[in-house]
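Justification of resources, computational component.

The compute hours requested in this renewal are based largely on the per-chain cost of generating structure records like the one below. Each record pairs the submitted sequence with a full structure-token output. That output is archived, and it is also reused by downstream analysis tasks.
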Amino acid sequence: MERKLRVLVIAEAANPEWVSVPLIGWSLATHLAKVADVHIVTQIRNREAFLRAGLIEGQDFTAIDSEAFAGPLWRLGAKLRMGEGKGWTMMQAISALSYPYFERLAWRKFGKKIADKEYDIVHRITPLSPTISSPIAKKCARAGVPFVVGPLNGGVPWPKGFDAERRREREWLSYLRSAYKLLPGRHRSLKNTAAILTGSGHTQGEIPTVHQSKTFHLPENAIDPTRFSKTKSVKNTPLRACFIGRLVPYKGADMLIEAAKPFLQSGQLSLSIIGDGPMMESLKTQAVDLADSVQFHGWLAHEDVQSVMSSCDFLAFPSIREFGGGVVLEAMALSLPTLVVDYAGPGELVNDANGWKVPIGNRDEIVSAFRIQLEKLIAEPDTIAIKGQAGFENVTKNFTWDAKAKQILKIYNWVVNGGDKPSLFD
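The structure output for this chain reads:
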């Protein structure tokens, strides 16, 4: 039997008990362990969660204690971001300062093993941000061990007409984000990387032309069929839409309520809003005259989220700055088609077969386009089930964590054995 490739996976942020990037890091790393001989290198803050999940320290993973440097910087970042869930670009800047120390410690621990070819590949999964370079890439190249990075994603530009939302999100540094392209560490990392995985068309477009031949487009999100297993089986009258996400300006829940208002008032549509955040009270005020047509569920446990979703007909998600759009894949896994703004992550996951897209524009334009599309859905509800089934088939074929691990295995084999650049999606 041909032996599995030995892969040292660097996932500084990886945690099965958290959400967002840490959950992506955990999910991808542990599913790669099904197709390769994987050892995970993570940050010490994730150690207890790894142990609770049944992984064996020293055998399955190593926890690197970089808190002496990272801890104070993260506490500083928490103060500078001025609010939970805000100042994303600020936190990435803090991570860019602290992460190299983590890699330094990781090399100190594993450098000799890499040089001795005890690993066939080194793969940095997290950080996902393309602004954060990897000093270890050059060292791996010198040792003759391919270095893979990604999926990288983030930094989607704020669309025109949403400067007020940008300021409310405390995204002051986003005006200067492009400066990272001038940093010498970025060029060294890309030069010494054997394969670059990018999670969005925008991020792929930011990779210099000279490196495009080794760049692969691979959205970072996927679903676990055991976590999203309920599929819709009942048709609602009136139609029922759902929105899922933090209640913050760029997610657009207020735009959705405004767009749907005539249909909510007439009883042709109901809306379930799952999530919480600083806009909760203003959204409730906005919906005060809509009787029982709008339900605010707040934050729900995973099982309760999919219970509400599977009782709905479609997901309506007018976010104007979504890097990945994992919620879109979760809806597809439950056979719900999605109505989105054609911008960034969701716009790349939704097509005419599995949902509906409206053009990016200013607030009034998005509200108008959503209202027009909602009216069409109410008039032609039979299209919902057809698109829902198409989305389900797409996500179960291409966007499970197992499927993603197999897609990345193609890249591993390519960087080790050479040959034609593989296609990731059959």
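Confidence is low (pLDDT under 50) at residues 80-91, 172-177. Residues 199 and 218 are 5 Å apart (CA to CA).
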